[in-house]
Each structure stands twice: as C-alpha cells, then as structure tokens.
Amino acid sequence: MWGRGSSRTLVIGTALAAFVVVCLLPPMYMLVLSVAPAAGRQSAFAALLLDTRQRELLANSALLGAGTAILATIVGVPLGLALARIPLRRKAVLRLALVAPVLLPPYVAGLAWIYLGGSRGLIAAVAGRDLLSDWTYSLPGAVIVLGLALYPLSMLATEVAMRRIDGRLEEAALLVAAPGRTLRRITLPLAAPSILAAALVVFVLAISELGVPGLLRVRVYTTEVFTAFAALYDFGRATLLALPLLLLSIAAAVVAGALGGERLLASRRGAGVPPLPFEAWRRPAGAAVSLVVAVALLIPLAVLGREALGGPSTRDVLAGSRDAIRNSLVLAATGATAITALAVWIGYARARSRPRVGRSMDVLLVVLFALPSTVVGVGLIGLWNRPGPLGAVYGTNVMILLAYLARLVPVAALALAASVRLIPASQEEAAAVSGAGWLRTMMHIVFPQIRHGLAAAWVVAFILAFGELGATILVAPAGEATLPIRIYTIIANTPSSHVAALALLQTAVILVPLAALGLTLSARENS
Amino acid sequence: MSATFLRLTGMTRRHGSRSVVDDVSLDVAFGEVVVILGPSGSGKTTLLRLIAGLDVPDHGEIWLDGRRVTERDRRLVPPHQRRIGFVFQDLALWPHLTVRENLGFVVGSAGVAKAGRDERIRHTLALVRIDALANRYPHEISGGEQQRAALARALVGEPRLLLLDEPFSSLDAELRATLRGELDGLQRALRLTTVYVTHDREDARALADRIVEMRHGRIVAVHETERRERDS
Fold first, then answer.
1. How far off is chain B from A171, nearest CA to CA, in Å?
2. Consecutive sets of 10 residues in chain A, 527 residues long: mean pLDDT of each?
3. CA A171: distance to chain centroid?
4. Would the CB atoms of A176 and B105 count as touching at under 8 Å?
5. Cβ–Cβ of A178/B80 closer than 8 Å?
6. Does ipTM surpass 0.90 in this model?
7. Would you say residue A246 lies in a domain?
8. Which domains, from first to last, does chain B contain?
9. CA-wise closest residue to A484 among A140, A227, A108, A116
C-alpha cells in the first residue's frame, strides 16, 4: 500500500527504536549485567541462591503472588460474571466503583490496613486491646491487601471474555441445561484462558510490588532489592537479587501474554445477543457488589479519613509537601503525554502486523508491563548512571519520566492496539487508493476513530504514573521527590495523621475525576 | 396428523416501538413440518426464539403438548425443560468440546444414565453419518460436517420439537440439496414435529407440510404443500 520510503516507515521505525531504548534496554541490560561472568560473580550468585534467607525470599515472593492471584480470582471472577450477565441497576457506575481499587496505589490500601488492624489501629482502639497487629503485619495480611487491590484485573478480564463469547453458544446450552450447568460447562471454560491470563498478570504484579510488603514488613525480593540498593548501596547485590524475580515474572507473563494478549483489554462483542439467564441472581449479586465496594474502597478511605482528621492541621501537612505534589502532577501529566505519544505508534504497528508477529508482540508487551518496578529501576540506573552525555540525564527528573515510559508504554500500546484493530484495514486502503499519504490517513481516518481510546490511555497512564513508586524511588534525583516517594519515606518518622492526609490527597487526585465520570455515566443511564 | 402439539396465540414481541412479531397465532400438529418463510427482518427468527423460550413475548401465549409454557412477559417453563432441539443459523457448536462431547453435554444435561449415553451418542452420530468424526473439534471438520454435527446435537436429547433456523444458508447449492434430502428422510423416520425457518422457497417446498409466510412480523399467507398431500 505505502512503500518503504513512505512516512509510515520513518514514523514507525523511529517509534520502535525509541521503544527499544526506553522499554527494552533497561531490563535487558540488567539481565546481561547479572549473568555476565565477572570475578567472583558466579560464586556470589550461587551463594545468593543457596542462602537460606534467599530461599525464604523466594518462598515468600511465590506465596505472595500465588495467594494474591487466588484471592483476586475468587473475588474478581464472580464480579465479572455479574457485570457481564446480570442486569444490575447503574451498572456503569458500579463498574467504576469496583475498578477504583486497582487505580489507587496499593500502598494507600496498605496504610489503611495498618490504621485499621495495627497495634494502635481502629480495631485495637475499639476493643481496648491489640487483637490483630500480628496478623496485620504478615504475609496473609499482604495477600489480602493486594488481593483487594488487584481483583479488578480479574473482574475486567472475566467481563471482557464473557462479552466476547457468542451468545448463541450459551443459548444452545440453555436449551438442554439449567443456567448453573451452562455456566460451569460452557461459559466458564470458554472464558478460562482469559481468567487464567489475568491470574498470571496478578501474580506478577503482586511479586513486583514494593510498597505493600515494605509497609507490612514482609520480606520479599522487591524489598530486598530496594534495601540492597538504597540502604547498602550494593548495586551488584541488587542486580543479582533482581534476577530470580525477573525470570519468574518473564515466565508467568509469557504464558499470560500467549493466553490473553490484547484480548485481556479488547472489549469487542461476540456475535449474537448474550443471554441473561441469571436475572434471579440480581439481588444477591447487588449485595455482593456493595460488600466488595465497601471492603475494598469505602472502608479503607473512611479509615484514612479518620486518621487524617485526628492530627493537628491538614493544611500544614499539605503545605509541607507542596513541592512533591506539584512535582507529581507535572511529571505524571508530562509522562502520560509522552507515553500516549509513543504507545499509539507501537499499538498501531502491533495492530497492523501479521498474526504471528502480532502474537509475539502481545507476549513481549505483557512481559514488559509485568516487569517488577524495582527491576526496571535497577536497569535504568545501570544504563544511565555513567560518565558522558548519558550521565547528564542521570540525576535529573528525566529519569523519572524514563521510568514511567519504561513501565507504562507496554500497557498503553496493548490498549491502543485493541482500539486500532477495531478499524478495518480496508479503510486505510481506501484512503491510499484515493491518493492520501499515510500521515494524512492517520490524522483524518485512524486518529479520529480512536480518540476515546487515546483519551483513556492518557488517563490510565496519568493515574498509574501518579502512583508509581517502585521504579521512581530508585531513580529519582536527590532532593526531588514525588508524592508517593514522600509518603513512603515519611511513614516511619512522621505522625500517622500527616501520612494519612497525604495518602488521601493522592487518592483524591485519582478518584475525583473518576467520580465525575461516574456521575456523567449515571446521568446518561437515567436519561 | 391430528392433535395440536404447538399452539401460539396472539404472540407479539416489540423491540422499542417496533413490533418484530405482531399478533401471530399458529397451531402445529404432532409430527407436522411447518416452514416459516419470509425475507430478512420479517420476524421469523424471533418467533423461533420465543417458541424455544430464549425470548419472552410482550403479549400472547405458547402451549406445548397441552401445557402452557409461556404467557405475557413470563416464562412458565424454562428452555431446558421444554425438550426442544434447536439448530442455529450459525450452528453454535461449542468450540472447546469435540463432536462427541458436544452431544455428551446434551445427554448429560438430560439426565440420561451414564451407561446409556455412549450408545445414544453413537446411534445419533451414525444417523447423520458422522460417526467417524466423533473425536474431532468443530474447527477440524468441514462446513457440511458441522451442519450434521449441529443436527446430531439437536436430535440426541430425543426432543419433542425440532426448531431449525436457516441451517443450510451458508452452504453451496449441491451440499444444500443433499442435506435437505437427508433432513427430510430423518424427519419422516422420526416423525418429529418441526418448525423450520428459511427465506428459500426451494427449502420450503421440499420440506414443508405447510408453509407459513411472514412479512413485517405478521402471518400473511398459509399454504399446504405437495409433501402433505403425498403423505396423506
């Protein structure tokens, strides 16, 4: 259609080169660095892996990931089923409320959990004695907090998978079987690959999480990498410790990508009208949805609010963190713009590539999104912290933007690829036949049709960048803090009311636009 | 053919302000083959879905074998208790199950004793001449074989009523004629009460005891055919 010398080659080629430098090189550099032969390195590596403490780290990380994936699936799958198959009232608003926990930084939920069940928490205050703190600061505690933060991924994957199922397949089953048997034998097996892929993504995100295990004093690889780098200044040890985490993440993400790919995000409907055989479950489903929203969102926010109001002056706290707040907003907005600008070309390239190449790209993008943030951070430091022009970038806020890009371009590209694939390639062919160049076709034919996808990608990138901690805390220049870094670093030596106030502010920046969107959707549903 | 097996009275189904099925009344006798003939959008598929219980009418009633199964806005008997075999236009074979498992799901749901299931499945596959394909998945067999598998799945539960929604619409003329002949033979052998929806007059003439023509959701004509005259 368009020749090799067209603007398409130039733009896509440049975007792919930028993608390789920004997203691929940091983890590859880290991988090469950690396995490269060096004096004493292999024996150090063997010692690290055989060390009893390291085996405990591996077990803790695996248990945290598996427990979180199981809990998120148990909570998320029935909710996805309810959203896809039960005629609930105000469904758009309910969906937003149910999705909200995954948009909040997990450490915010971790803080709420501590203020609720810690030795000086709300439950201890009401009961008059410490009932739960041993349990609060534990691996099961971390599993619960992360499970309740990440279940929306399982829920959305289940809902999307169920919407893609051809309604006739279920109707054919309903003619001979009761709804429960149809669900077990036809619907769920058809949705199973997506559900399993989502569980693997949750597993990887849980083992990649730094904030929650750090707060709840659970020793896992991410906390150990952070300690090795930030407290012991031992870059070699941090690199070695990140390697098992990297390999575990890649293995799980490769399977998840192969099972789900962009289908985890694309919401194209299957043929036929999906039947609604579960009308009788409307009330129990409504009650379950309310319970989950209360436990995963409203109670944590109420606990944070109570803690924040217990302090002297919220205004002083906010004034003291003004620089971090401004930094966060500016960097997240700049980062989201850069992420969307790069991801749209990568997403386009994926959408218009041959099926086999496309599937491989899906796997690569899922793997890159699932990389632990600490691994990305260590890779970025290794790559950019050196003399010469690269060193000029290190020590500036550009490193934070690079961390955002490395972490979030892959997921934005997956989402935008799904949007582009909804546009038939024949529309571009029609433009080419009529004499339009590729850039003109993109501007006038493709972009207008994916404008909602572009807006959604920007908003999600902003929200995730605004809450990013694991990579940012490693690469942020001295003296420059974002809001998540400030919250994480003042927890130990600042009154809890101050920390809670900042966590609430962080939550508000994310939830206020979300609530406005909810009200708009609600008004639209009512009309 | 005598006693009425299926009775529709004053059936109306609206989508918004538009009546997709508009005040349709029809009696179908035991063992009779009624072909609903009409162009796209005439309401014939919706009528079939109402009979199966996959949709509910805004007005009217459905009676099966003397029992009221649907009344205005309400299913009195759920679809899986009506003992209906349904061949969908796009066949709707379950892609994650083999042909044998597709039929196995039906007999398992119908509560057939485990000992008798394999024999029932084998017999039905032989009836439609695809017994060699039992262990293949739907995507591993040809279009014509998929049609036979869908028909076998509809028959294996020993339904009292067979509903077919343009099952041969995607086939070429030759294969279509072959399958039409086989379906006719099967229907005569099993004496199954059948409602067949199509827009093809040739299908209608070959299979029907009676042809019911629909336009804009209403029945506009009913003809008896040579097939009925031959049988009587």
1. 7
2. 75 95 89 65 60 81 94 96 86 88 88 87 84 86 95 91 86 89 90 86 87 90 82 72 78 74 49 60 90 94 87 71 88 96 95 87 84 84 84 88 95 90 84 80 89 87 88 86 86 82 86 78 66
3. 35
4. yes
5. yes
6. no
7. yes
8. 4-83+160-231 (3.40.50.300), 95-158 (no CATH)
9. A108
